[in-house]
Structure formats: C-alpha cells, structure tokens
Amino acid sequence: MIKKRVFIIFLILISSLLISGVVNGQKEKVVSLPFWDVPGGLVPYYWQAQHILAQGTIFEGLYGYVPDPKSLGGVKVVPVIAQSYKVSKDYKVWTFKLRKDKKWSNGDPVTAKDFEWSFKYYASPKIQDLPAWAGPIQFFENFWAVKSGAMDPDKLGIKALDDYTLEIRLVTPRYDLKEWLCVGQAVPIHRKTVEADPQNWWRPGKIVVNGPYIPVSWTPGKDMVLVKNPNYVGERGNVDRIVLKFGGLGLQQYMAGELDAALINTVAEYKFVLSDPKLSKEFHEDIMECFWNGYQWSRGFDPIMDNIKLRQALAMAIDREKLCRDVLGGRALPLSKYWPNGTIIGDKMKEIPFDIKKAKSLLAEAGYPEGKGLKTLVFYITGGGDPVAEFLVDQWKKNLGINVIIENIEGGLYWGSYVWANFTPDAKAGFTLIGAPMNNLSVDFSKGSDHSVWFYDYPTSIRKKRFELEQEQDAWLRKSGGLTEEDWKPLLEKRKTLYEGFQKIVKSEPEKLWVEEMTIPPLWYEQFDELYEKWKNAKTNEEKTNYWRLAGRVIVGQEIFQLWYNNLSPQSKQAYRWRFRTLNRPFNEAIKIAHLWLQPSQDRYYMVPIYLPKAQWVQNPKLEGLVLYEFSWGPGFFLFKYLNLKD
C-alpha cells in the first residue's frame, strides 16, 4: 500500500515537472514563433512551406546553410553530413565522404545507403507528382527515364560505394551541386519507417529524422511542437522546445508574450512599432534582395499580350518612388530591374525608366493613342482590396488613358491557376501581381523571370497549342488501349516525324551546352523505343497498356519541346543560351554574367519589377540566432538549430 502511494506521488511529481517545463531540474527553454501551416504533412520532397523545416531543422542533407549576413540571402553553404568531396574534371561525377557520427533520431547511423535509397525512392514512378524542378535529382543521370518508367530506379545516377562514400553522376556539369544539396528535396528519409507505413511515416509520433529537432505534435490550423533530437550530433543552440504557431499570428500576440518574434505586416504596424519606446528597441529590418515584386501579364490566350510596345508602355508609366513612399509607407524600395543597384548583377542591368512621354509614344505606336481602341483590361487580385494593384491601375489611367478593372478571385485559384500556372485559358487580357524570389542559393539567379522564356515569349496561338498538348499528355495516363500493333501505328509515325525535326534542331542550334542538354541519354526516342520493346515482351494486358501510355507521354513531351523551341523569340533563345553559360560556371563566376540572360528576359516586359520588399520584425531581446528566410516562401524564419535563449 505504501509502495502504491509512493508511486502515485512520483507520477504526480513528474507530471507537475513536465507541465511546468522543468527537465532534469532545470527550466525548459521554449521559443514560440509564427510559421506557415503544413497541410500537406512533413514530406520533405514536396514543394510547400514545410520544406523550410527540412533545411537544417528536422532533416539534414550533405550540405546546409549557416548564417552569414554578408552573403546572398544571408546564408552560406557548408558541409553538414558531407565531410569532403571530389569532383571529376567535367563536373559530372561527384564523390562525397560522409561523417560517421551522424545518427537518425532512433539511433540508427546515417549512411550513404540512406541517400541512395531515398533518391531512388523520390525518382521512382511511385512519386508521380514529385516537383523535380525544386531539387537536385532533376540533374541525376537517367532521372527522367526512371521517372517515366522506361528505366529501373537502380539506373539512377547515385550509388553508395560503401557505408560512408556516396557517388552522384550527373547528366550535365553542375558547378553548383553543393548549393542544390541544401534544399528540402536533397535530404534523406528513414527507409524502415517509410516502408513500414508509406502513407503516414511522416506523422509526429512515427517520424524518424536526422536533424536537430523532432516534431512531436501537430495540430492543423493551430501549432506544431519540435523538441531536441537526443541523438543529434553537431552544432545546436540551447532551445529545448520550439512551438511553431499557425494562423497569421503577429504583433498583437508578440506584445501579449505569446510569440518570441513576429513579422510586421502593415504600414500601420510599422509606424506603431517605431513610435513605441519598447518595441522600437526590438525592431529589426532587412532588404529582401533575393526577391522582386511587381506584375506579370495574365497567362491566358488573348493576342493583345503579344504587342511588345503595349507591354513597354505600361512598364514605363509607373512612378515607383511614389508607390514606395505613399502606398507602401517606406516598407519597400523602388525597383526597376530584377536585381537592385548595389549587387553584382543589378549594377550591370539597365533600368526600366519612368518616362510618361516615352510611354505615350510607345502606346501610340502599339496602335492605341491615348489608350483609344484598347479594350478594358483586368487586374486579378485575391483577398480583398490590394493597394499596389489599385495604384498601378490608377497610374495607367492617369498617365496613359488605359482602363483596367480589378477582379478579386479565391486565393487557391489565384495562386495555383493565375500566378504560377503554365497557362490559364479562362484568364482575360490583363495582369496579376507577383512576388518573384530565388528558390535557393544556386546559380539560377532568375527570381522566376525565366517564366518569360518558358511560358510567354512566343505567339498566343502557340501558347494555346502547347496548353492543348499538355492536356493531351496528361490524358495519356488514363487512355484505354495499347494491346495491338495497330494502336502503336500513330505513335510510330509521330516518332519518325519528330525524330527528323529533332535532328534538325540539334544540328542547327549554335549553343553547344544547349545541345548537350537536348541530347542527354537516354534520349526521348531511345526511351520510346525501350518502352516499345518492353511492350512486345509484356506478359499481361495491363503491362501492355501501361507501356503504351508511357510511350504516348514521351511522344507528346517531344511535341511540346519542338513547338516551344521552334517558336521562341530570337531574343529569348539568346537569353536561354546565356543561361546555360551561367549555369556551367562556379557561383563566383556565374554571378558576373547572369545579367546577360536576365536583361533580355526583362526587356520582353512580360514580367515587370516594381519594388523591392523589406522584411521587418520584432524580436525578444533574449532570443539570439534567429535567421531570416529570404528565398521562396519568405520572409519568415528558419535554421532553428541556431536559436539561443538567454536567461
């Protein structure tokens, strides 16, 4: 009886200590921060907000970031699980030696085999919706053939030579592979845990991680709690528990002591903080130089957008100084090119001038003197009134006589179908606002402006045809047939025609680096032939249909490529050639020539920079090591491993 009472008292004492945040006799250090909710779960290879958690907080890769205010984006790249590397002279084969002291949160060692299995898993057809463009796997040898199903995942260009040596083979030289190995899609996942429960392995309570913090709870719409990983080896701050709070929490919650940092979201908040004696001392500010904010033409099929002089006139009729001063309240800097003055790239780029006289002249040359004869355009926004859109509409009316109406649409539709979609058939001639960032610290300095090349700079009729082909390619996943040679006949005929067109492109394209990319083995026709041979030897009707579907997708994919290449403007083709030359240089050299492909993209005026945002926040004076996230999804906070909370 006495033993039972003692046990009950012990349980009560332990519970009290846990509730009070006392661990091992010491007060637990807890930090609460605002964060994005993670509706898609904690799968690191998908492109959504939680990939920021994968970058050094719950997962780690071969390389990662450390804070460095002097570097682009406020961070620099350092080895994390990698100990050293060797690279071939052609920069296609990278061999990494791994640290031997890194562990998973369950105590298992982190080995080269974890990376090999994880990347093969990502590349397999099982992950059909993998956003390959968001990670380094797109550059691995045979990736696209593996993803299409034409090759076995074992043919992917990655191999564990032993437990702590990893070889990566690339299809083209990548001087910036280390930078790519920092991103969320470059981290390994724990094989046994994934295979035991493929649908739910990532849930708190199940997930096994290799980063400094483990997710222990997640309440959608409310918060996520991270605690120190006891098996983590490496640099880490003194914070025991991190509470990430969802739901747009900000200054009010910070003032109430519910948050240890909060972003400033409005001009009113900014002015209030600066006027408050206490908050003004806790105020921080940084320029988001990896962003540009502005507008882009809608992604519909109205031929008005093909008129470059109209596009130029609109871009030159905007008083950016007035916008930043009167509308944005000093929380932004005027920007008339993709990179600001004071940066290596920006200092070499030409600005879009604010010149009403020139804009009016261009508008007349476009066929719309004083705006006459031009239909009413549409500016799409989301979430209620938008002062920036309202300002632009007013500028175009006052300075050019152009009528633009504002149309508010639902947020999911806006971002998914109007801002970042390939094409939006329902979109009327007009615009959307766009915040265009770098995705990560690689030599792709475009900040999204390469969409001018990918989705805009060829005639509207071609854009519409491309959209139809993309719909057809998707439809191949669901087609019935492929059981007879007769079903293959149209595909074989298209293969012959497309092969001739492809050879013509390869022979005529002057940029060797572009040709190298076009001819990465296995080539599209080699993939097609491989699928055809597999079809001939297939045992079941299901296998036959599947190979036929995959072959159809390969054919349509090549149709899309040739349609795009053959109709791209000469200016954009030249820009694209410079893009290849940039990518095939080390970071410190690439940044010196990036303007040579960014300038032609800017000069097409499909995507127009207007201002450079500032990140502003307040922060608990006792909190140190808070790192601003300046890439996609920013501004926000990440790299939580460096957080320290002073007593």
TrEMBL record:
Question: How is this protein annotated for GO cellular component?
Answer: ATP-binding cassette (ABC) transporter complex; outer membrane-bounded periplasmic space
Q: Name one GO biological process term.
A: peptide transport
Please provide the record's keywords in A-Z order: Signal, Transport
Report which superkingdom the organism of origin falls in.
Bacteria
| Solute-binding protein family domain residues | 76-422
By its UniProt entry, which Gene3D superfamilies does this protein fall under? Dipeptide-binding Protein, Domain 1 (3.90.76.10), Dipeptide-binding Protein, Domain 3 (3.10.105.10), Periplasmic binding protein-like II (3.40.190.10)
The record, for SUPFAM superfamilies, names: Periplasmic binding protein-like II
Subcellular localization: Cell envelope
Identify one Pfam family in the record. Answer: SBP_bac_5
Q: Which GO terms describe its molecular function?
A: peptide transmembrane transporter activity
Q: Which family does it belong to?
A: Belongs to the bacterial solute-binding protein 5 family.
* Name this protein carries in UniProt: Peptide ABC transporter substrate-binding protein
